[in-house]
From TrEMBL, chains A, B:
This is LacI family transcriptional regulator. SMART domains: HTH_LACI. One of its GO terms (molecular function) is DNA-binding transcription factor activity. CDD domains: HTH_LacI, PBP1_LacI-like. Pfam families: LacI, Peripla_BP_3. It comes from Arthrobacter crusticola. The keyword Zinc does not apply. SUPFAM superfamilies: lambda repressor-like DNA-binding domains, Periplasmic binding protein-like I. Keywords: DNA-binding, Transcription, Transcription regulation. It comes from the Bacteria. InterPro entries: HTH_LacI (IPR000843), LacI/GalR-like_sensor (IPR046335), Lambda_DNA-bd_dom_sf (IPR010982), Peripla_BP_I (IPR028082). Residues 22-33 have a biased composition (Basic and acidic residues).
Length: 331, 331
DNA sequence: CTCGTTATTGCATACGTATGCCTATACTAG
DNA sequence: CTAGTATAGGCATACGTATGCAATAACGAG
């Protein structure tokens, strides 16, 4: 049906292995033959089969990216740089998402014959890292980590950003501060909460339990949490959100409720997504170099694939506050 | 290294082909053996290799999705439903993006051994459809089409939406109407322009050349176009945008310039992305059922794979205007 | 008791590429 | 002139699964 390296070999008058070598610029084939093979391949429109390659070489030059869900506005900002960074190293990206059964995910990752996996999703209790380790399938934690299995990682260090946020909140006179946090079984949610509490403590403040709302990192969570806070007899004057997407939900809830931002309510995000700096949004948020973080994760993974024995590398990216229009002074 | 069907066969005391059949519920293997094989497979943690399967069966159960770029805010809304619809049919999704050389893209699609391709990107002059046709690789046009090669397609019919937009604009007293359109080599941009011009003509209006701005379907285009219009001695009172992402750019430009929307300027989008209906945005836009369109495209493709001979199916999804807060009355 | 059937399983092989090893040729050094 | 050494290419085979066909066993009918 389709044209194979054997067809090319026949046309060029060489053996199939020579075709394989010629087209991959193996030094063992002479310049003349290489040219002849190339010409034949072009003429037949030969395209090597990844499946054949994978089976024979044991490598696919494909890398999996595991996300919780694709709907989330945060993920495109991971997918794009990951795709390009991997592409520049000659790797292709395969998307995967969590499904109900954790083991099914692991099976898919394995059956795909991936050379490595970027885990951008792992909850603390996921079995995926275990399964991957058992298979000796290289992987890197991105954004989140899991204590169960150690691996290279690229994450944000929220301490500096949260410290600056706490200082700014204090300086603007905020005392009643709420937080809308991510799921308790994600390292990101936990780390940000810890950093936030410590930073507030240094300012002599704290968050009471009633000012805490938890949920997935999406707009619905931000919306629901903010709505809830606004019905309180003494609503908070500021809300620190688990990430920008949550903060967008908070902004929407405030607008719907007719509550002015930042006059009546201040909102702080985390991630500094491109849309956070849009003139119509101008979200005050904690920023870090997301693109660089993605690229680092990709590089770590490729490096790990090529030298499985090298020591673990855990890189944390610093964060800082970017003040825009959603943080105001308490009257 | 990894466990294969041979290992399972040995443990279960059967031949390798029997393992293959047993695990795929082939009726030719007895219930007893099937159970024995399953047990052995579980015990060894056997996971079949996609590469082996692909090579042997000629099918990969993988489908490619070709996009122009991953940065664009529009694409996540395609990727997610496509991913899930394909998954529900037992197919996996592979992302691909256009790169400088058109032929390189086609080669990748081919070498991947995909069972089919969703073309969400094809410019009118792309060679990709030609290459795919030559390889007998099934594909479906999504959103855009190309005249060079006919294939199943799922697209928006903008006529009704544009008609309603023109009526609404007219009713609100707009006479100076501008448009920020997509690239001239995309069918979407062309179709929307035609529909818009016809609809305006029915209202006795038209768009002068100086009120036309063209560029990629991104926020930068919307921003630049709007900035440009606003510097004119007689700026338009309304801008119809090629899609919502462009409209977001327009909103930003207006805000930056201190121009009120909709008091000084009305803006209309196209797509009705989830964020268009956010309280803090409230974009007036032309809507259609994007999710259904994606699912249709996926279904068409799978159907085409299974019955290559069936007649062509071109489905157009109707559109309509959704009035929100960015369309106002001219003073 | 024999023959035709059906139900199960195994055998052989194909899929397309990569790679270790051997061979043949040409070339260099002594 | 010979032995040693690159250099270039071919041969054989492996990778893991699926599948057409043959083989065996079990079984019932006559």
């Amino acid at each position: 049906m389709s044209v194979t390296s054997h067809d090319v070999a026949q046309l060029a008058g060489v053996s199939q292995p020579t075709v394989s070598r010629a087209l991959r610029d193996d030094p063992r084939v002479s310049k003349a033959t290489r040219e002849r093979v190339r010409k034949a391949a072009d003429r037949l429109g030969y395209v090597p089969s990844d499946a054949g390659r994978a089976l024979s070489s044991g490598r696919t030059r494909r890398i999996g990216l595991l996300l919780t869900d694709l709907e989330n506005q945060f993920y495109p900002h991971i997918i794009a740089p990951a795709f390009h960074q991997l592409e520049s190293h000659g790797y292709q990206l395969m998307l995967h998402t969590e499904v109900a059964d954790n083991d099914v995910v692991a099976e898919r990752l394995i059956s795909n014959g991936l050379d490595g996996v970027l885990l951008a999703t792992s909850t603390i209790d996921s079995v995926v890292p275990l399964r991957l380790r058992d298979r000796r399938l290289p992987f890197v934690y991105f954004n989140r980590t899991s204590d169960a299995v150690s691996a290279d990682s690229a994450v944000v260090d929220p301490t500096q950003g949260m410290r600056e946020a706490a200082e700014a909140l204090s300086k603007h006179g905020h005392r009643r501060i709420a937080a809308i946090l991510g799921p308790a079984n994600t390292s990101t949610a936990v780390n940000r909460e810890i950093a936030l509490r410590e930073a507030l403590a240094q300012q002599g403040m704290s968050i009471p339990a009633r000012y805490i709302h938890r949920g997935p990192f999406d707009t619905a969570t931000g919306h629901a949490g903010t709505e809830h806070f606004l019905t309180m007899p003494q609503p908070p004057t500021a809300i620190v959100c688990g990430n920008d997407v949550v903060a967008f939900g908070a902004l929407n809830a405030a607008r719907s409720a007719g509550v002015g931002v930042p006059d009546d309510l201040s909102i702080i995000g985390f991630d500094d997504l491109p849309s956070a700096s849009w003139p119509i949004i101008q979200l005050t948020t904690i920023a870090y170099d997301l693109d660089a973080m993605v690229r680092r994760a990709a590089d770590l993974l490729i490096d790990r694939i090529q030298s499985p024995g090298r020591p673990l590398e855990e890189s944390a990216f610093p964060s800082h506050l970017i003040e825009r229009d959603t943080l105001g002074t308490v009257p």
